[in-house]
Structures are given as C-alpha cells and as structure tokens.
Amino acid sequence: MQNYHPQKIEKKWQARWINEKVNAAHICDKEKFYVLEMFPYPSGKIHMGHLRNYTIGDVVARFFKNNNFNVLHPMGWDSFGMPAENAAIENNLSARKWTEENISNMKKQLQSIGLAIDWNREISTCSDEYYKHQQKLFIDLYNKGLIYKKDSYVNWDPVDNTVLANEQVIDGRGWRSGAIVEKKKLSQWFLKITAFSKELLDDLKGLDEWPEKVKTMQKNWIGYSDGAEIIFKVVNKNLEIKVFTTRPETIFGASFIAVSVEHELNLLFNHDKGFQIFREKCLKNQSRIDNEDEKLSFPTKLFVEHPFIKEKTLPVFFANYVLMDYGNGAIFGCPAHDNRDYDFAKKFKISITNVIKTVKKNEGGELPYSGISENDIMINSEFLNDLKISEAKKTIINKLIKTGKGKKKIGFKLRDWGISRQRYWGCPIPVIYKEDGEIQTVSESELPIKLPDDIDLSKPGNPLVNHSSWKKTKCSITGLNATRETDTLDTFFDSSWYYLRFCSPKIKDKPFNEEDINYWMPVDHYIGGIEHAILHLLYSRFFSRALKECNYKIPKEPFKKLITQGMVCHETFKNKKGKWIEPGEVVFKNGKYYHNTEELIKGRSEKMSKSKKNVVDPDEIIEIYGADTARLFMISDSPPERDLEWSIDGIKATHKYLCKIFDFLSKDLKFVLDTGKLDGKKLNEFEKNIYTFVNTTIYSFTEDIKSYRFNTAVAKLRELSNKILTRGICSDLFDYSWSIFLRLISIITPHLSQEIASKSGYNKLLCDLDWPSYDKLCLTSKNVKMVVQKNGKKKLLLEVPMDIDQDEVIKILFNHNSKLGIELKTSVKKIIFIKNKIINFVK
RNA sequence: GCGAGCGUGCUGAAAUUGGUAAACAGACAGGACUUAAAAUCCUGCGGGCGGUAACGCCCUUGUGGGUUCAAGUCCCACCGCUCGCACCA
C-alpha cells in the first residue's frame, strides 16, 4: 500500500507556484534578503553538485520568506564559453542553438527540484540583452584607464587555443582543458586588477561572514610583501637594472645579478643565437616550474656596480628561475641567505658571502641560512655590522633613499587579469582599430556589437577572424575604414557583475539602476563551490570596486556572507587492470567486491566524475523518489561546507521516512496551520512534556537553519516526529504538534507539506505563512538534569528544579540516594558547583 | 618548502564551545507478521569485566605528554590525511 506519489504532487504544486508567481520579488517596505547561488554553466544536464547547491539556497530562501523578509532568489545562465563552441565544431551546429536547448532542458530540471526562484528575472550572459550592457561597462572601464592593451608573454592553452589568466592556470595546466600551458607573446587586453591589490587585501578583514579558508586563499594569492627596490648601474653602459627585494639588508652578501629572459636587457642579445636558444628553452618550461628544476644560466658578460662597495662589481646572468611577472624580473643573488641563489651560485661557481651571524650557529654555520630570528646579527656588512636584521633593514632602506640608489617598495604577487580570448563564443569586445592602428571604443549608440550567427567553424582559428565581413566596419567619427576587435571576453568577465543585473534584469537603457541596487545589494548569502575561492570571487570583488570608480553607485563588497559548499562524493571501484567500474554494477559478497565474477579493488570515495564512473544523475533520482526525497537527503547527513557522501541507501531510507510521514498525515488531521498556537496551561504533565518538546524544537530548528546546520536541524525534526508518531496524545496537542512539524519541514520538502495541508482542506499556500513562533516559557523549563560527579567522573544524573543552589542540590541528592550521598560527602576536599549543570565532589 | 584545515563506533555524523562522548541516521544482526520472500513493525548495535537477571564497575575521541575539580574541546611534541600556493626574490 503506497500512497505517496511525488511524481504527481510535485508537478502540480510547481505549476501553481510558477503560475501564481509566488516567488516574484518586488521592492517594498519589508526588509530585503538577497540569496544567490552561483549560476550554472548550461552544459545540458544538472549534476549532483547543482542539486546540492540549489537545495541549500532554496531552504534558506524559503526560510527567510516565511520569516517575513522580501526575498530575492533569482537564477540565470553563465552561457558563454568553450563547451558550446566545441560542441558546435564537433557536430556542425550552432553554438547559440546548442546553448539555448541546454538552457531550456536545465531549466525544466531545476524547476523539477521545486526551487523558489523568481523566474521573471532569468538572465543569460550570451543574450545581447545582457552583453550589450557588459560592452558598456567595458567602455566605462576603458575610459577610466582600468582596461589596457599590451604585448606580453601570456599563458597559452594549446588545446582550447586561447589565452588564460594566471588564476586559470592550475599546476601548469589549463583549468578547463587540463593541457600543459605554454608561454606565447601576444597583444592582449588586461584589466588592471593590480590597481586594487592593497584594497582587495585590506578589505578581506571586513568580510566577517566569509570562511577563513577563502580569505586566506585570497590573501595568499594577492601575496603582499614588504621590501625595497635597488638600482644597479651597469658598468660602462648607460643602463641600470632595478631589482626588487624583501631582504635589502643582505646587500653586502650580493654576488651576482640574475634577470628573466623576458627582461628588457634581452634586447641587447636578440642577435645572439645562443641566447635565443636559451630563451626558448626557458619559456617552454616556465609555466610549470618548481623548486627542484635545474638552474640554468646564460652569462651576459655585463657587470653592475655594487651600490655600497667601491670597486666591487657583480656579474649579470639571464636565469630560468627569475620570473618576469614578479617585481622587476630581476634579482640580486645573495647565495648565503637564499636557497635558490645558493643552488645557482654553487652550480656556476660564484662566490658566497655570509652576512648574518646567528646565535646558534655562529659565523661559518651551515649555509644557506634563510631564516630570520630576533637575535641574528649582521656581519661582513660595513655600516650594517652588529645591527639586528630588523634594524639593518630600516637602516639600509634609509641609506638607499638618501643616496638615491633605491627606495622602499611593496610587492604583490597579484598580476593584471588577462581578459582576451581568441574564441568565437564570448562577448565581443566593443573596440575598433582604425587604419592608422589607433584604438577606438565603439560609440554607445552602436551597442550591442552582436556576435554573427553565420560563421564557419570548419576552419582552424578564431571564426571571427575568418569571417568575411563581420570585422570590417567604419569609424563612426571619421567615417574611415576600420577593423573590429576579434578577441572576445573571458567568461569570468560575464560573471563578475551578473549579481547586479539580477536587481534590474529587464531594464533596457542601463546595466542596472540605482534604486534597485540600493534596495537589493549586497547579496546577503552567496552560496557556491570552493573552487571559485579565488577566480570568480576575487574578480567580482575587483569589479565592484572598479565600477565604483566609474561612478556606479554600488557597494564595495558584493557578497556579505559566503557559504562554500563541499563536493558530492561517491565510492569508486577499479578492476585489477585499473579500469573504473560503476558502483551500481558492483556486488558485495563475503566481504569482497565483484563485477560479474571479477574481484574489484574498492577505492576511496571521490568527487563524482565521469572519468571515475561514479556519477549519479539527479534527474533519475528525482524521477524515482521525488524532489522532496532528494532535497531532504542532500541536507540531512553532512553540514554544507563539508563533502557529502552520496548513498543510495540514504536516499531509500529518506524516501521511506517521507512515505511514512505522508501516510500518517493523510489521515484525518485538523491542522492549525494559520494560528499555530495552543494553550499550554490546560495540559497534563505528560502532555506538557510533549508541548515543551515541540517548542524547543521550533527554537533549535530555527537556530540551526539560521546558521546552516541543516544536518542537526533535520535530526531535530526526526526526533520530533519519532516522539509524536508513537505516543497517544489528546487530539488538540496532536494536531498542533503535527502542524508545527509540517510547517518546519515545509522549507525542505515543500511539495509534500503543501499536499498534506491541502488534503486536510487547507487551501492557502504554506510559503505565504509566517514562521511558527515558540512559547518562551518552554525554554525556561522548571527542571534541569544535573550531573553528579566524583573526581570529575559521572556518578548520577539528577533531576532538580532550575536555579537552585548547592545545598539544595545536596539535599535532593540525599533524598534520592542517601548511600551515594554519604559516600560522596565523606572526606570530601572540595565541591565544584556549576548551577544547573554539574556538582563535582573532589576527594 | 610555505600556508590552512582535519583525525570521534562498521559508515555519515552529533556534542549548547571546557561540564552526561556517540544525538539523528545508514549498514548489519536477531525477532514478529508471512507457506515463503519483499514491504512493514519491534529489539540490539564502541570495547572489556562481573552478575541468572534488573544492573554494576572499568576503559574508550590518531599517538605521547601537559594544564584543570573536569579535556573530543585548551597547550606542547609526534604520526597520518585533505586542500590551497609554490624558483613570488
């Protein structure tokens, strides 16, 4: 006998919510709450990670709506990007059509989860309605000097055939393709994110509702270091080399200068075959360099003057271990106090001078010594001798400034964000090149610059370059011939401001308007995967600052609270040959795992991925068990920030539970959903206990949801239902208790709750109800359970009236168990008494 | 190498922030119903010792130390795992 058919009831209520636009958000006098989950890339199908992400956000959205907030919970599509273009090339179809079909399919899937989303605000980054405004923002940023073009060596992904930003290179590989990234010299568009390095770093302190982990990652990425710039004069040439260092005090230990092969000094060696070969060798490997790589050098035969030692000169080398992107692409080598310089000096037989005397190791101790400790003292350093390191650092910087040989300088690891992509399926950059090569932004009236649909994907290279007419245009001012920019924008540009567009999704003449932004921004809770800790979140924080500079009135920090949800993991199996086997095909017998007759090796549980064959399709789960089961399971077991272990047994058990609840509540119940109140005074002792339990559940469930402790919130609901399922309670209390249960669980299982309410004759929507309030008297119950301890070990649990003092507790203890009382009191040294908690007899 | 975090039953986990370790689940085992199975329901479920029994006693949060009346929680050292960064001067 099975009465619970989620397939029928879920569709019904979803249709009603959408038709009645119950989730449409409008500005009003109520307090706003903007909850946002990171919008998806329309790959065609939702995966478990989406299901988890959107369930978490939806529970929160529904909770705040019931708590009388004006909730904004929108959804859109991060719909530009490589997969569409690749699919178009492979199957000879239109990237736009492919994307739009995927969107339509995924939208149906998202709706089948029953998400309380304002679909009227749906946006899609590949629509010209969206990117028109983005092009305007590009022009604003350009005019403000925050976008510029330069020739530089960039990260080139040979599989995706495009440039990548530094943040998009992970372990030397492209973040999407996994290909080993090469260095290539190209003319590229950059966003001047480094103009905000300091701010982006300092303002992390104000993000008190962000996970520490994410803040630490951003901090390390921005990478602040405090040091100095030192100028070295090249002997017999009208040239200087500027060097950034965090250890200027070790200048007397300097024995060489090393520069990157990309350093401007390379201009002097362009004719040199040997140098060219050396440079190629360095560039090839430079996207993936690590400490263990061999040090390579190319001597320049140039020398520089030591700034403080007369007659002393230092040889200059090109070296593979010096990075062009950091500091000035040049260092002074101090082998005694830097491991890399030490390796280099040893290999190329360069002299080593120790300039630090440590307390432990005295002069001549083991080198290199790169530590800094309080009592270390400078030696062999002329006017720095006998100073502590920290004092020496100050002294040398002052000396540099005084003599004009350098200055104090702060360095950041953060580099400007390269936004050019040599691909078709992205937002066109609204720039033209005039015949004289001059760059001109497109006038606002010409926006949007639309992507052409009639492109030829059969030829290699960027289809926009290959297009016969698209790039040909005229300058709107001079009327002369001009060429369009054929690079498109990195899709992270699209997602850096979409949260603003959600506030004014329909407005035509500007990206967003002030009134909407004022009311809705910032995003109160932003929920998404930890993988965006740096990329998307840093870009968005930069964008809001950059747009502020362009006079847009928006908050500096776009996301007030950040929740980073963990991955959905699943067990993995391999056969003896190392081939992955789907967990669904594995049989467990006598403590071993088999696929057909073959014995398998059980791997550890890993993030669901096609390559490991451990993916489960959420659509199938929803079809068989219903969205409410899937939703409840997704939040039951693990807290959101931790990885979730997928388990089909867990799903089945969750479904069983909902069936039980549904069957039970389909009986003749008179819910009191609107009032949700009961006069607790008329109840007998036993009933009062139930009543108290219900009210403490309201309280603690609410607290748990507020702080994203969904797993313990669910545990409390189950405790409540366990309690009231098995006891015979008078009908008023029974109806009241189940009404509360139904309302609490309705934010997790909205369809089931609504269906039950409706079956009982209730014809309003639960999502419009106020959140249940609790009877405060219940939280200050009259009795508490106190622990009686002997030497800190539990002996007894004693129920006593609230707030009584030590003597009274002892009196009750004697009444309850005089033998134990006497035993504890005899020869007691000390009694520790914590009111309402513990009494400890110390002997 | 640098930085961050974690380590609790067979498993996912909980523990009001120093005060009853294992809530709530899953798996498993036993039982009831059934000709049988499934479904459902009930019971048990960290380890050891004692008792016919109700029950009692002892041990137990990666390992070893420490602080405290009291430690999963705080401090020190070690072991193991995960994540991020990494020739960043």
Order of the strands making up the biggest sheet: 2-1-26-27
**Beta-strand share of residues:** 15-25%
Report helical residue fraction: 25-40%
Helix segment tally = 25
Structural class: alpha+beta
Oligomer: single chain
**How many DSSP-defined strands?**
40
Report the uncertain regions.
none
Biggest β-sheet description: 4 strands, parallel
Mean pLDDT: 89
Q: Could you tell me the radius of gyration in angstroms?
A: 34 Å
Q: What is the 3D form?
A: globular
Q: How many angstroms does the end-to-end distance come to?
A: 62 Å
Summarize the structure.
By secondary structure, the chain is of the alpha+beta class. Helices cover about 35% and strands about 20% of the residues.
Describe this structure in words.
The protein is α+β, with helices and mostly antiparallel strands and about 850 residues long. About 35% of the residues lie in helices and about 20% in strands. It has 25 helices and 40 strands. A hairpin with a 4-residue loop joins strand 5 and strand 6 (about 160-165). The two termini are about 60 Å apart. It binds one RNA strand of 89 nucleotides through helix 7, strand 11, strand 15, helix 9 and strand 36.
Notable features of this structure?
single chain, 843 residues, alpha+beta, 4-stranded antiparallel beta sheet, globular, RNA-binding
